[in-house]
Amino acid sequence: MPHILIVEDDTDINNSTAEYLRRKGCLCSQAFSGTEGRLLWQTGGADLLLVDLMLPGLSGSELIKGIRRSSRVPVIVLSAKTELSDKVELLGLGADDYLTKPYQLEELWARILVQLRHMSAAPSGELLCFRDWVLNLEEMTLTAAGQPVNLTTHEFKIVELLAGRPKRVFTKQQIYEAVWQEAYAVEDKTITVHISNIRAKLRPSGTDGYIQTVWGIGFKLAEARA
Questions:
Q1: Residue 54 contacts by C-beta under 8 Å, 6 or more apart in sequence?
Q2: Nearest CA to 125 among 110, 109, 138?
Q3: Which end of the chain has fewer beta carbons closer than 10 Å to its terminal beta carbon, N or C?
Q4: pLDDT tens-digit readout, 41-63
Q5: In a domain, 226, yes or no
């Protein structure tokens, strides 16, 4: 479950963003000033920060500067400023992305997932993301479209394998040998049954269609439609 710190002085924007992200399966901390944001960051940390620029107390720019002295945590700036020079300046300060207000929550979520994917690719990363899936690799948990999915160890390892290489088609033999760590000496239906069980558990979240059967070969993940 990714922990997101929202630093935004507009109460309506802060609350609506937090409510949306919680539905997506995130843990959200809310700060309504730069000073409060710095305190929450220092005491509780976060996996990603959403930071407004025009904040009471400590400004968003100063908050980002302070965080960058000790951390590379992803930071997405939320601001009404639209000038290219403003965006260039903020990216130079250490922000990872920039979203202009007013913004759609769906676009914000897409940008958050991009940053979480980047973080999961780092050696110390704990999260692996694909579309509306968030896998916590240390805890071996999966959140799909904001809903926790209770997987067995082998089921989780299958999902992790597919999500780690979403464009690759894996044969049943490749899946078995990667997950069970032994030579493939079972009937084909072993993998098929596990995939069927995973899809059934994903169905309530509406993401069961992410796992695609490639007939005559094996399985892969379905990319989002343009």
A1: 9, 60, 79, 80
A2: 138
A3: C
A4: 888 788 899 999 889 989 988 99
A5: no
